[in-house]
Amino acid sequence: MEFNIKSGSPEKQRVACVIVGVYESRKLTLAADLLDRISNGFIGDVLRRGDMEGKLGSTLVLHSVPHTLCDRVMLVGLGKEREFRAKEYREAIRASIRALTQTSANEAVSYLSELTVKKHDVEWMIEQGTVVTMDALYRFDRFKTRSDEPVKEPRKLTLAVPRRSDLGDGERGLARGLAIANGMKLAKDLGNLPGNVCTPSYLADEARKLAESLGGEAEILGREDIEALGMGSFLSVARGSVEPARLIVLKYHGARERSDRPVVLVGKGITFDSGGISLKPGEGMDEMKYDMCGAASVLGAWAAAAEMKLPLNLVAVIPSCENMPSGGAVKPGDIVKSMSGQTIEILNTDAEGRLILCDALTYAERFNPATVVDVATLTGACVVALGHIATGLYSNQDTLARDLCAAGEEVGDRAWHMPLWDEYQELLKSPFADMANIGGRAGGSVSAACFLSRFAKAYDWAHLDIAGTAWKSGKDKSATGRPVPLLVQFLQDRADIALGNVVRRGRPRRETQETVDDDAD
After folding, report:
1. Domain map of the chain by residue range?
2. I need a labelling partner for 45 at 20 to 30 A (CA). Which of 110, 119, 236, 310 fits?
């Protein structure tokens, strides 16, 4: 779909559909009020008849509104004006796009992007509007010979800005939004691919293509290279599969100096997780193709950063393999040696993600990183703790944790800072090795993070447990593309700080006629 940024009055738009907002109690937004006036109160009359009350996410499409140039006017409920914030804005955008696909309109102009969300500017409004629009339109039907429900995707969507002087900010927001949305689409596509297609070799090939198309560097290490590095923990997981393991390394040089210390993103790339000898239950095992969503999100964030040409150096490290049972598979009770030299007693082969990540975290030391963030669908315990709303966040630096949490809040991809106290390390004691790979059921997400922390002492490090946020289950099961938005915002913030710019977060937008009450939170 083509996007466009425009400044202009809604009553002058000769287009298939104009999208405007209505608050609860039938209060019209500025754009809706202009249409109401030119139509001699037509919209207000419709609302007074009770066809729409402005409930958040509700929509009503009006045809042939008098004295307007557009074919349709879509009214979108915004909820209570005093409660209209970032979450409500995103929900209104999503509702408008879903309703638009149920019409025959091939072009639309949305004035929802002109609304005011406290502490956010025009650039943010357009960026988030673009991301949510692309997310709402996402479909994965690559393997269907016939689509069950054909979606009528509009050919063109124009996002309105309040003034001509806002066009530059709008264009920048659109470019950022498209980069983030493209990164999310990449992550979702990779996550939704079946395990017989998205193998470690396939993931490596896709990474190589990304580097070629975006001006990065790719290095793909095979089994012999991995073995030469001493990654015995990583290779122990790969032993049960006929699919060869791959260590994928992508480099993007955006800083003025190639020698500037990079941010390193490490992504768990288990392309299918059967549990190994500690076999998972059969029910729901199909969803274990999503166990590489950490890798997928790292690739998506790397691609978005390269597309945005962020002025920083960025490295992606992705250990990828399958976790399968076989006569050669690693067994409970086996002891393996990691790249760091530390030994690990494997008590449960289904706790395999940490076994491949620990060697990748040791490998990351060679880049002299400014910071390292690993992303993994690591523990069911994190789902129990936080559900499917927030990503679990652990870090050995509170400042880093705060930066990641703030980035997530900015883009609606939230994380919650979890404890990483020394007392939890006791759970990993083993009588036969330096540590066990599990610490028991209690505090399972914490002990998994504690395990990883033992391999990340050489640098500032954070761990994102996305087991509850990387995909959704049920009849509409799909990868979500999280935490690509969080990671990209985090990278953008670091780039801004490095350049001496003020971080965009919290910068108040110039007020318009629709400014939300200053007493609102």
Report:
1. 2-141+155-166, 183-498
2. 110
Nearest to 211 by CA among 170, 272, 252, 248: 252
How confident is the prediction along the chain (521 residues), in pLDDT tens digits per residue? 999 999 999 999 999 999 999 999 999 999 999 999 999 999 999 999 999 999 999 999 999 999 999 999 999 999 999 999 999 999 999 999 999 999 999 999 999 999 999 999 999 999 999 999 999 999 999 999 887 666 688 999 999 999 999 999 999 999 999 999 999 999 999 999 999 999 999 999 999 999 999 999 999 999 999 999 999 999 999 999 999 999 999 999 999 999 999 999 999 999 999 999 999 999 999 999 999 999 999 999 999 999 999 999 999 999 999 999 999 999 999 999 999 999 999 999 999 999 999 999 999 999 999 999 999 999 999 999 999 999 999 999 999 999 999 999 999 999 999 999 999 999 999 999 999 999 999 999 999 999 999 999 999 999 999 999 999 999 899 999 999 999 999 999 999 988 877 666 544 333 333 333 333 33
Reading the block at residue 377, the tokens are: 């669908």
Query: Which residues are CB-neighbours of 81 under 8 A, at least 6 positions away?
Result: 23, 24, 27, 516, 517
CA separation for the pair 12, 123 (Å, rounded): 24
Cα separation, 13 vs 6, whole angstroms: 11
**Ligand-binding site membership of 51 (annotated):** no
CATH class held by domain 2-141+155-166: alpha beta
Gap between the Cα atoms of 44 and 34, Å rounded: 11
CB 185 within 8 A of CB 465: no
Enzyme catalytic residues: 280, 354
- Which residues have a Cβ under 8 Å from the Cβ of 60 and sit 6 or more positions away? 46, 51, 52, 74, 75
In 316-439, which residue ranges form alpha helices assigned H by DSSP? 353-363, 380-386, 398-411
Provide the token pair at 28.
Answer: 């019209």
Q: What are 87-109's pLDDT values in tens digits?
A: 999 999 999 999 999 999 999 99
Cα 141 to Cα 112, 144, 145, 245, 513, distances in angstroms: 30, 5, 8, 28, 43
Closest CA to 269 of 243, 242, 290, 239: 290
The annotation status of 45 as a binding-site residue, yes or no, is: no
Cβ partners under 8 Å of residue 122, min gap 6: 161, 162, 166, 169, 170, 173, 509, 510
Count of CB atoms within 10 A of residue 224's CB? 9
Single pTM value for the model: 0.95
SS3 percent helix, strand, coil of the chain, rounded to 5, is 40, 20, 40
Q: Would the CA dihedral through 362, 368, 371, 372 be positive or negative? A: negative
What is the fold of 183-498? Aminopeptidase (3.40.630)
Q: Is there a binding annotation on residue 135?
A: no
> 350 among the known binding-site residues?
yes
